[in-house]
């Protein structure tokens, strides 16, 4: 657990504390995940009014992981300290969201398979954060939402659905264009899911720590099962349905329900909200392993077609270079 003013970092620009929430929104969630959530906060040493960044982690990441020690290089907290100290970015408040699930992520939406993480953020975390900061003589002047990969997806979703709360969206390599980025993963994962005993068996092995997490196929399997819990309809046992069977038949009707959660589907319905944002940043690597550059380019075309103000970049890198774009994103605030 993080303690106030965590000494190991010796920060001059910031203080550290943990915002603990016992969530009503996550009560009785279908995965049995804890309702007790610990959300690290990083806030300027000097009291006052600041913009606040809701930081959303990528799949298999979580808020507290950003505070982990990294060998031979600074972690995100140390980078933020340095960027702020040399005035590359403005002093900001940061809230690192604890949205961990059994399968490694929630996509920050309300889901029958995972639980109500959107409600957790909007109805509990944000109000509690503002209340806690106020008690320490800080004020949130404006909210931004930022993330990469699944976190980028969450940033696009939350800012376009709640533009009255989030005036700034910073999305790096967001999950999108499921036909290109996710559908091939389903074909690759399906035989492994079968050979590992099916979703229910994999869940049991995950809980009992018998699942080989160092397997070459582990991430692909977890990604497909995790996204199924976020996007899919549930079967009669409560297990999410996959839109593929062992004969290779693809269920296009079920797949349509997944596509309704695709930014390429919901963003065109939220044009007015997108136009109201003060900052809209979209970034992606030219060589993204999950082919997210193709979805990002389509989102860019949507923004251009509808005269939505935004900043777009493609960088010389891949999906695992997302962290290199955070400084650029935060500088826009």
In terms of topology, how is this protein built?
Blueprint: E1 14-22, E2 36-44, E3 48-56, H1 76-85, E4 93-96, E5 110-111, E6 115-116, H2 117-135, E7 138-148, H3 150-161, E8 166-172, H4 178-181, H5 183-195, H6 199-207, H7 218-231, H8 252-259, H9 263-266, H10 271-276, E9 279-285, H11 292-305, E10 311-315, H12 326-331
Parallel strand pairs: 3-4, 3-7, 7-8, 8-9, 9-10
Antiparallel strand pairs: 1-2, 2-4, 5-6
Helix pairs in contact: 5-7
What would you note in describing this structure?
The protein folds into two domains: about 240 residues, Rossmann fold; about 80 residues, no CATH class. Helices cover about 35% and strands about 20% of the residues. The chain has twelve helices and ten strands. The strands form two sheets. The chain has an eight-stranded mixed β-sheet with strand order 1-2-4-3-7-8-9-10. A two-stranded antiparallel sheet has the order 5-6. Strand 9, helix 11 and strand 10 form a beta-alpha-beta unit. The two termini are about 30 Å apart.
């Amino acid at each position: 657990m993080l303690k106030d003013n965590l000494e190991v970092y010796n920060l001059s620009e910031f203080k550290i504390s943990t915002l603990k929430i016992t969530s009503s929104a996550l009560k009785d969630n279908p995965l049995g995940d804890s309702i007790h959530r610990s959300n690290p906060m990083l806030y300027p040493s000097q009291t006052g009014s600041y913009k606040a960044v809701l930081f959303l982690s990528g799949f298999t990441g979580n808020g507290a992981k950003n505070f982990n020690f990294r060998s031979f290089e600074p972690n995100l907290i140390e980078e933020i300290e340095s960027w702020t100290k040399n005035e590359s970015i403005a002093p900001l408040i940061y809230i690192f969201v604890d949205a961990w699930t059994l399968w490694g992520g929630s996509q920050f939406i309300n889901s029958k398979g995972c639980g109500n993480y959107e409600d957790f953020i909007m109805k509990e975390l944000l109000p509690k954060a503002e209340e806690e900061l106020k008690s320490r003589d800080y004020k949130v002047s404006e909210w931004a939402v930022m993330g990469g990969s699944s976190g980028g997806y969450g940033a696009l979703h939350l800012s376009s659905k709640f533009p009255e709360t989030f005036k700034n969206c910073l999305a790096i390599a967001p999950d999108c264009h499921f036909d290109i980025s996710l559908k091939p993963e389903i074909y690759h994962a399906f035989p492994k899911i079968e050979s590992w005993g099916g979703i229910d068996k994999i869940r049991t092995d995950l809980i009992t720590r018998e699942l080989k997490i160092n397997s070459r196929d582990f991430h692909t399997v977890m990604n497909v099962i995790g996204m199924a819990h976020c996007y899919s309809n549930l079967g009669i046992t409560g297990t999410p349905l996959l839109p593929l069977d062992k004969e290779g038949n693809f269920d296009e009707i079920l797949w349509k329900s997944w596509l309704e959660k695709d930014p390429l589907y919901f963003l065109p319905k939220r044009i007015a909200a997108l136009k109201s944002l003060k900052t809209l940043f979209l970034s992606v690597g030219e060589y993204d392993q999950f082919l997210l550059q193709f979805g990002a380019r389509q989102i860019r075309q949507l923004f251009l077609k509808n005269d939505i103000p935004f900043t777009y970049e493609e960088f010389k890198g891949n999906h695992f270079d997302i962290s290199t774009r955070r400084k650029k994103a935060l500088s826009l605030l």
